[in-house]
């Protein structure tokens, strides 16, 4: 994958967090963090897609807006191995500003129906001779319909080292960056095919939701790669399947 990873650091920091619409804070602590996200250990993780505000406590404390990318509930007997909690992605300023902007059609009168607006838009395109735009709009709406199957994007890993790096820096947090010239729209459902390198040579399929669209630095940092960030609907399942395949591909040494 042509993308520079965000390094994770093992840090235990006390936090308070407020789910959107909740006035009462909840408590937790981080197990690891990076410049783009964090994992909060808690026995009551929020569901993926939940918005929340996080306060990092201490002398260097600060507050951020964030979204849950994946949640993991672990049995008490296993929490010494893996913590219950949730993977968090910090929201960027552009995403926060977008929430302040009026939605399309917010100031239109109620008498103008959605069908009438659609017909008026299409008529205007036809009158201007912009037939290509009209066709593109129809294709976009058809793709967004509930009956349309999610598009599939393939993420290939050059070697096992790249795969392990992606697991450590991204997939553990419940998502992955997908290099593509034609990214899907924010919040669109997609299918991700993780094409694993030799000696594994298997493909892991996963359902996901687009949580970010934009460029990322290339591996050498000299250019950017167009693509999108996605959050797996079942991050722990994807992680467990990858770990199983990696373990199965390790050389078996007989006892001598």
Mind explaining what this structure looks like?
This protein is an alpha+beta fold. The chain is built from five helices and eleven strands. Strands 1-2-3-6-5-4 form a six-stranded antiparallel β-barrel. Strands 7-9-10-11-8 form a five-stranded mixed beta sheet. Strand 4 and strand 5 form a beta hairpin. The chain is globular, with a radius of gyration of 22 Å. The N terminus is likely disordered.
Topology:
Elements lengths: L13 E6 L6 E8 L3 E5 L9 E6 L5 E11 L12 E6 L2 H8 L13 H14 L3 H14 L6 E6 L3 H10 L5 E5 L9 E7 L7 E15 L6 E9 L2 H15 L7
Parallel strand pairs: 7-9
Antiparallel strand pairs: 1-2, 1-4, 2-3, 3-6, 4-5, 5-6, 8-11, 9-10, 10-11
- Sequence of strands across the biggest β-sheet: 1-2-3-6-5-4
Topology order in helix (H) and strand (E) letters: EEEEEEHHHEHEEEEH
Estimate percent helicity. Answer: 10-25%
Q: How would you characterize the largest beta sheet?
A: 6 strands, antiparallel, barrel
Structural class of the secondary structure composition? alpha+beta
Number of strands: 11
The low-confidence runs, each spanning 5 or more residues with pLDDT under 50, are 1-5, 104-112
Radius of gyration: 22 Å
Q: Distance between termini?
A: 39 Å
Classify the beta-strand content into a percent band: 25-35%
Mean pLDDT: 78
Oligomer class: single chain
Principal-axes shape call: globular
List the total number of helices. 5
């Amino acid at each position: 994958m042509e993308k520079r990873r965000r390094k994770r650091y093992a840090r235990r920091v006390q936090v308070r967090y407020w789910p959107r619409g909740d006035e009462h804070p909840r408590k937790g602590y981080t197990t690891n963090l990076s410049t783009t996200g964090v994992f909060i250990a808690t026995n009551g993780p929020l569901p993926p897609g939940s918005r929340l505000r996080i306060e990092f406590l201490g002398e260097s404390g600060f507050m951020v807006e964030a979204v849950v990318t994946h949640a993991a509930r672990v049995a008490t007997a296993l929490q010494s191995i893996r913590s219950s909690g949730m993977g968090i992605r910090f929201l960027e300023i552009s995403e926060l500003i977008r929430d302040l902007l009026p939605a399309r059609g917010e100031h239109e009168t109620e008498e103008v129906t959605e069908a009438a607006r659609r017909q008026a838009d299409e008529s205007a395109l036809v009158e201007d001779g912009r037939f290509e735009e009209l066709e593109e709009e129809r294709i976009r709406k058809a793709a967004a319909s509930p009956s349309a199957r999610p598009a599939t994007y393939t993420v290939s890993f050059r070697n096992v080292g790249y795969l392990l790096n992606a697991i450590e820096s991204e997939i553990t947090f419940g998502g992955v960056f997908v290099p593509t010239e034609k990214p899907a729209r924010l919040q669109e459902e997609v299918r991700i095919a993780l094409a694993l390198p030799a000696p594994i040579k298997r493909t892991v399929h996963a359902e996901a939701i687009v949580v970010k669209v934009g460029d990322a630095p290339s591996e050498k940092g000299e250019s950017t790669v167009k693509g999108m960030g996605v959050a797996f609907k079942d991050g722990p399942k994807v992680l467990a399947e990858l770990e199983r395949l990696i373990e199965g591909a390790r050389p078996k040494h007989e006892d001598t």
